[in-house]
Specification:
Helix content: 10-25%
Number of strands: 8
Distance between the termini: 52 Å
Order of helices and strands: HEEEEEEEE
Structural class: mainly beta
Largest sheet: 8 strands, antiparallel, barrel
Shape: globular
Strand content: over 45%
Radius of gyration: 22 Å
Amino acid sequence: MKQYLGIVMLLSLCIATAGCGSSSNSNSNNINGSWTANLTNPDGSPAFSFTTNFTQQSGTSISVTNFKFTTASPCFSGDTTETGTFGLSGNFSGNVAGTFGMNVATMLSDGTNNQLSLQGAVSGNTITGTWALTGASGCDGKGAFTINKMG
């Protein structure tokens, strides 16, 4: 009987331990996935919007793919190059928190290089912060942004 009780307790402990380590929601609140961004000017008016996919790479690097501006802008009429960083500061109960950085650059046909830089913080499925645009005349500015995870 003692042996049977010991086996039952051991099995119960194994099942409980496996449940605690479950990662069934590991993708619900992490940086990996599809995101949509809205950038606003200091007066609150819309500046830029885009959609993209983020995938955490080794270290703090983020792969930025399927990037697409959803607002037209002569500042980004050419091909763009996107890079990103994510500094994890916590991952408790599947909730991601940390620092975020992203750069979008384009080289226009006249040789002008426009650079959009975003700096902010990740909290769960939302990234907030500030942006700055430097480059050609009329392609400069700054403001705030919110990026939300889709789905």
